[in-house]
Amino acid sequence: MTFGRDRTVLMTLAVLVALLGFCAVQFPFVLSARVLGNLLTDHAFLGMLAIGMTVVIISGGIDLSVGSVLAFTGVLLGVLITNQGVNPGLAFAVALAIGTVFGAVQGAAVHLLRAPAFIVTLAGMFLARGACFLLTEDSIPIGSATYAALNDTALTLPGGTRLTLSALIMLAGVALTALLLRRTKFGANVYALGGDRRAAELMGVPVGQTTVGVYAFSGFTAAAGGILFSLYTQSGYPLAAIGIELEAIAATVIGGTLLSGGYGSVIGTALAVLILGLIQLYVTLQGTLSSWVAKIATGALLLLFIGAQRLLSLAPPARPGLSIGNHHGAPDQTPSIGQAP
Amino acid sequence: MKRVLQSPAAAPVAAMLLVLLIDWLIFPSFFEVRLVDGRLTGSFVDVLIRGAPVALLALGMAGVIATRGIDLSVGAVMAIAGAVAADAVAGGTHWSTAVLYALAAGLACGLWNGMLVAFLRLQPIVATLVLMVAGRGIAQLITAGQITTFTDPSFAALASGTVLGVPAPILIVAVAAALLTLLVRYTALGLMVEAIGVNPRAAELVGINTRMIILAAYALSGLTAALAGIIATADIRGADANNAGLWLELDAILVVVLGGASLLGGRLSYGLTLVGAVTLQALKTGILLAGFPPQMGLIVMAMMISVLLVVQAPSIQQWMQRRAVRGVAS
Description:
The structure holds two protein chains of two kinds.
Chain A: H1 7-26, H2 33-42, H3 44-58, H4 66-83, H5 88-112, H6 117-135, E1 140-141, H7 145-152, E2 154-156, E3 162-164, H8 165-183, H9 185-195, H10 197-202, H11 207-233, E4 235-236, H12 244-254, H13 266-286, H14 291-314
Antiparallel strand pairs in A: 1-4, 2-3
Helix pairs in contact in A: 1-13, 2-8, 3-8, 3-9, 3-11, 3-12, 3-13, 4-5, 4-6, 4-11, 5-6, 5-11, 8-9, 9-11, 12-13, 13-14
Chain B: H1 2-6, H2 10-26, E1 34-36, E2 39-41, H3 43-50, H4 52-66, H5 74-90, H6 95-118, H7 124-143, E3 148-149, H8 153-160, E4 162-163, E5 166-167, H9 168-185, H10 189-198, H11 200-205, H12 210-236, E6 238-239, H13 248-258, H14 270-289, H15 296-312, H16 314-329
């Protein structure tokens, strides 16, 4: 692993460590394994969404529909498990399949219609949220025994840290996606597509397949995030997680991924999810602060990382391994919305 | 006839007329306008009033999109401007001074966005994301997390008052659109904005000061967002930092696209933007009039975007062009 390619990840890590230190000075117990384990559990669903978002953004696109797909999955699980008495395992499979197909259709629309991803997934966002209300307008509690069992499942590490199933699934998702991006042909195609679509096409990258695959993957992780969210809240609610797509995008950017595509890593995204979680934790612990602090802090971090990326990409490459995605920062004005035409 | 059909206004206007026709079929008295207590009332007037904030956001957004940009922060700027205005009025400031404060706040936000895009050359979607996330926090900071309320009747009149029977929000939108149209069509500004949208590098090479014009586009978007925030605040006589203008940026982008503009820039028409605004609001009102739950609007909006995307797809456009050429040849 060359850190030249992942300089921005190092920066994300530095911010995370600094923030941990800052919190630990006032609240020493923050450094306990239990608190950190809970941090993972509480933000597992956001992590899942952000993983898919990272892949989409590396490919040069954007997916605004993930929050609605998450809510739809929760409502669907509620209807299937509570109202219809379907076996939770089967319901999970159905939800994952629907999320994947939904994403694939969006990818096909982006590719076939040459439409900006921003607008296609905006339609997807409205559609999935509307579909929630077609199923139900109320919150459906999910009191299945399987849910209780799944929530009690945890891995106890030496030293007493409990990693819940949700946290484990999120960590596994991060590891598998990192492998997918760095060790498979699909991953290479994703980077190539985001780097320069036309060049990728000329090199023989199957642009259509890759685009469909990328959005299908994001639909899958959004549905998986929905399952984790329903485990976390034990209910399905049509208005759940409004605006979480923004948090997923923010986590991706703070994780060092370029919004113009072609550069980024899912490890950075996972660290950024922890940063966002830690900011919220600090606001909660402090008690006197209100939610505006978290918002402004997130905005400031976004600005910091965007500015840093700008500087890094303007600086001449220090090592040959650095060139990936670098020309994106050059001050040419490529079409700026989601995906290049 | 052919010229009418091929004009860029044809599709947006046809869409608006179709939606209005459907509204009229659902609700026969849709276009009835009556003068009650010296004030125009009726379903259609209501559409125009309800649509005013989004129409204002869309006017600013249209200029930004014409330069190939996008402004995600307009909803948050609405909240900031509303918070500034409500805070000032509640503190006893004269309503006109409060309006100036709010406009100044909006202008500052717009200049900030414009600076990031034009001078630091950040991607617009990223640059404006910063204020979209942080802006609502700033608005909460101004209102100290409360919902600031006020009773000043002069300020509230900006939303509920009338001039010669015409409700104030409609007038504000009309005046803003007219001023902007004069600004871009009676100077070279509109031409330059569209030139930047079509080909930024070429525009720079022919000597257009692209940075200043992009900066101006975002500044104008901040100003119109502030106006929208003022109307929204006056309407509820209070500033709700959490919910004012929430997700309206998406509505505003949709309105600009409904007005026939391309998200890839190069087309600017404030008139057609208003057509798009009426289309969207008439659609939302129509769903309510038909007795559907308001959430159905989301599905109808999704279908509308899908139709737009198919119509605007390059392959479909090429096919239509080929047909047109064949029609001329035969």
